[in-house]
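Protein entry
_____________
===
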Amino acid sequence: MKNPILRLALSVIVMSLSFTVLTSCAPQHPVTGKKLLVVAAENFWGDIATQIGGDQVRVVSLMSNPNLDPHEYEANVADAKDVAEAHLVIKNGGGYDTWMNKLLAASPSSKRVVLTAWDLAPEKLPENEHIWYGITNDVALTRALSAALTQLDPTHAEYFAANTSKLLTQWQNLRQQMALLKLKLNHTPIGLTETIFLYQAGDLGLNVVTPFAFMKAVAEGTDPSLQDTYKVEQQIRSHAIKVLVVNEQTLSPLVDKLQRLAASAGIPVVFITETMSQGPMPAWLGDQLNRLAVALGHQAVQ
């Protein structure tokens, strides 16, 4: 078959047939004559839906403010209405957005497709539900979402396939960017205030020296042990790390103190966000990586 877009479209249709078997709440009939309503628990998954669905979908992302702590999010009546009317729902899963389970249970529907990114992710780190920071997981969700949209609206299979191809190219470009950055950053010792950045740290070959128990406690909003806290502070004072990566959405007095220590020691602090600050998603992740590279004295990689 000479037409690559048509070939991708047909492959997506095959994927969607398999997806129908695996999804217990798959609709019995395709949606025709109107835009698909896609409700994403988080805006990074919503961005993928927007890029693939284009003008054939209306995407509502429930958690989209990068200035708020996502762990404190509370669903409201408008969220419940959107979920009840949705053709497709995307949630992270893995214990990250349990409030979405309550919304789905409140409006059961055999006509709604539900994608749980955690269940689709091929790369899961221990006790770390932040799977969207793993590019392999993002690619898997991209393919699954493309299949789901094609299942719901097969008349636009080629359109979805063309958009999927463009997004997969963006993910490949991000992989190449990370490969180039790894040549510069490999084995660099860094400190993290929590676990979210561990996915990309591993891909970049960075040496995370912060105790895992400390990062996990901060991520969950609990107090780390005094022993771990002392160790992290000493790592900063002794310049055992070259940079401190901070999730700016989950700040606390302890994290503020670490930032001040880093500033006093002349160690750069790089802020990342848990919720996408601006899209598209691959560019958001790539921009954060370039800020890390610049903080460590290297040039950004496009």
User: Anything to note?
Assistant: The beta strands are 36-42, 57-63, 88-91, 113-116, 189-192, 207-208, 244-247, 269-272. The mean pLDDT is 91.
